[in-house]
Amino acid sequence: MTERDEIRPAQADSPPPAEAAQQAHLVWRGELTTRARVRGRGLLLVAPPLLWIALFFAIPMLLLLMIAFASRSSTGGIEWRFTWDNFRQLAGFGPFGWTPTNGWILIRSGGIAAVTTAVCAVLAYPLAFFVAVQPARARTLWLVVLTVPFWTNLIVRTYAWLILFGPESPISRAAAVLGFVPPGSPLYPGMFATCVGMVSAFLPFMVMPLYAATEKLDWRLIEAASDLYAGRWRVFRHAIFPQTAAGFSVGVILTFIPAMGMFLVSDILGGARFMLLGNLIQLQFGFGSGNPPYAAALSLVLIVFTLIIAAALARLGGRKEDLV
Amino acid sequence: MKRLPYWVIALALAALVLLYLPLVGVVIQSFNVSRLGLDWKGFTLQWYERLLHNAVIHEAARNSLIVAGVSTLFSTVLGTALAVGLDRPWSRRTESMFNNIVYLPIIAPEIVLAAALVIMFMLLRHVHPMFDFGLPAVIVGHVTFQISFVALTVRSRLAGLPGNINEAASDLYSGGWNRFRRVTLPLLVPAIAAGALLAFILSLDDFVITFFASSPRSETLPLFIYGHQRRGLTPEIHALSTVILLFTVIFVVVATSCLRPARTNGSH
Question: What is the rounded CA–CA span in Å between residue A70 and residue A86?
Answer without folding.
Answer: 8
